[in-house]
Write a structure and sequence with these properties.
Keywords: Coiled coil. This protein is mainly alpha-helical and 78 residues long. The protein is built from 3 helices and no strands. α2 crosses α3.
Length: 78
């Protein structure tokens, strides 16, 4: 089997990269869909859209463990 030229090798690597990016995007969509399904079971209507978005944004920003630790430390709502 003849050795690949640099141009062929580059084209092969780019094709693999595109395939990997497609797989990565599919995995992201699947995970986000799973999380979205969980939201349907929660009483999110108690929050405004702005509060909900801000809550998720901040939780993602600091990380799940840090967000849980912070929220669990709050007193129970009345």
């Amino acid at each position: 089997m003849p050795k690949m030229t640099e141009r062929d090798r580059l084209a092969d690597l780019e094709a693999r990269q595109r395939k990997m990016n497609d797989e990565l995007e599919g995995a992201r969509r699947a995970l986000r869909g799973k999380y979205a399904a969980m939201i349907a079971e929660m009483p999110v209507e108690k929050l405004t859209e702005r509060e909900f978005r801000e809550l998720l944004t901040q939780a993602i920003r600091v990380g799940g463990s840090a967000a849980l630790t912070a929220v669990k430390g709050l007193p129970a709502a009345i």
